[in-house]
Amino acid sequence: MTEEKKKIKEGFLGQKMIVLTPNIRKSIKNNPLINSFYLTAIGYYPHALGHDRERKTGSAEFILLYCIDGEGSVELDNKVYVLKANTFFIIPKNIPHRYFSSLKNPWSIYWMHFSGVNSRMIYERSLVEGQHKVHSIPFEQDRIDIFNQIYTMLEESFGTKEMEIMNFRLLYFVTSLIYYKEINPSVYSKDAVSSSISFMKDNLDKKLTVNQLADQQKISLSHYLRIFKQKTGISPIAYYNQLKIQHSCQYLYFTDKSIKEICAVLGIDDQYYFSRLFSKLIGTSPSEYRKKHKK
User: Fold this and answer.
1) How far apart are CA 183 and CA 201, in angstroms?
2) Domain boundary pick from 185, 200, 224
3) What is the DSSP letter of 37?
């Protein structure tokens, strides 16, 4: 049998696949609760030997490929992206592409087609500096359970509420992949900036200088300043002060400590400086904040 004859678009033992019909899609498009981001097709191909799909004019929807086992590839914009276990990739709409399973180690993939006015923005959140990337992500059974919930709901009903719940689940599923790093910062906290922020949080009672912060990370001041602002958008001291003010809100809310006492535990000598900084960041004075929020 030639390699060409081995190519299969669909049809794998144990596969699941549902494609929403035009009338169901139309009802979703007319529902303002879910028409900004919605599912058009969904499936699971286990051990998909010979899986090979090419669209020379692209797809009308965005396509999420989530590989949980084996290996496969995506050809897009004259580049090849290799997906292995616990990786995902989003193919943009209307772009010629091909994706196919490895013949030696065929992939098992969950896939979804999605559309809506917000679909492009969500897809763009998967890009890194505007470029496509295969994202690695730890396996979580909860994510598979969400997929199965979506699929089961589609099997049982296409009612309005069921479609709403299903698409809410869809948004959660997709964003749990795209925003995994932000949702689970501790998993990715080995870089110098994250380490420095942890150090700041452990030393909110101190009066750390930017030189001390750079020295603590054992990097030059200029490099520290550059990478910190690159990641957070502000300077280290501005970030440090934000943490102090955020922490002061807890004291104002949960304790009867005076402004002077709060300043002392946050390593701030000047109460008036604290009040000005608090008003600038929170939008109200410390006393007004306490009056409004104190239990």
Assistant:
1) 19
2) 185
3) S
Q: What are the beta bridge partners of residue 45?
A: 109
171-194 pLDDT, tens per residue?
999 999 999 988 876 666 568 888
What's the start-to-end Cα distance of the chain, in Å?
A: 75
The bridge status of strand 108-115 relative to strand 79-84 is unpaired
Q: Which long-range CB contacts under 8 A does 26-30 form with residues at least 24 apart? A: 27/158, 27/160, 27/163, 28/163, 28/167
Domain end residue (candidates: 157, 185, 213) = 185
pLDDT of residue 2: 37
Q: For position 263, what pLDDT does the model report? A: 94
β-bridge partners, 136: 87
Element (H, E) at 164: helix 160-178
Sheet bearing 52-55, strands edge to edge: 52-55, 97-101, 71-76, 79-84
Residue 99: band (very low, low, confident or very high) from pLDDT cuts 50, 70, 90: very high
pTM of the model: 0.66
Beta bridge mates, 128: 131
Cα-based distances in Å from 55 to 26, 61, 108, 142, 159: 24, 12, 20, 32, 32
Whether 249 and 175 share a structural domain = no
Query: Where do we find the tokens 């000005």?
Result: 276
Q: Residue 70 region, left (φ>0) first, then alpha (ψ -120 to 50), else beta?
A: left
Which CA distances in Å does 162 have to 20, 41, 98, 153? Answer: 13, 15, 33, 7
198 plus 178 within the same structural domain: no
Residue 119 belongs to what H/E stretch? helix 119-124
Q: How far is CA 154 from CA 60, 105, 238, in A?
A: 21, 31, 49
Structural domain total, the chain = 2
